[in-house]
């Protein structure tokens, strides 16, 4: 089975040792699922909503699950709402990646994180190299890598993954123009606002 955009984001959203980066890999992986459907022309954006352009399954179980969810809705779904819904499915997605061999689960003793998900190193490095080559101009932009860059920027993963400031500036150039990257930023901004509000309520009560 081919490696899709959400798989690539899962690979680079975890350290080589399997820890999750401090950005937002859960939302990034969810955006990768949507991005795959956009790349395969199953969905089209309509403002903040997603419309089904072609209900034909892609043949990959993960994006097809998302596509089926949208096909059976009576009305279009907000992109931000879908990203939050799919981000909450993170454990099931990682279990799927374990079953395919893209990541390896290692048990942890922490109450907050039961597993580390160690990415397959060669695939992880290949994804990062493709991204770096586009950012440095060594390779021409292509739709898949542009979508990858936009989501990486939107999920604030650039600081962890891109070591040089000029390359991060190139990442921001793509991220600020890529709709999925902007959508991820909006989801995270709302999440952070809600977290701050909850903290204020707790500390003031």
TrEMBL record:
Q: List, alphabetically, the GO terms of the cellular component aspect.
A: cytoplasm; endomembrane system
Keyword list, A-Z:
Golgi apparatus, Lipid-binding, Membrane
Q: How does it sit in the membrane?
A: Peripheral membrane protein
Which is a Pfam family this sequence falls into? GPP34
Does the record's keyword annotation contain Cell membrane?
Answer: no
Highest taxon, organism lineage = Bacteria
Asked if the keyword Protease belongs to this entry, the reply reads: no
Query: What phylogenetic lineage does the species belong to?
Result: Bacteria, Bacillati, Actinomycetota, Actinomycetes, Pseudonocardiales
Q: Name one GO molecular function term.
A: phosphatidylinositol-4-phosphate binding
Q: What is this protein called?
A: GPP34 family phosphoprotein
- Which locations, inside or outside the cell, does it occupy? Golgi apparatus membrane
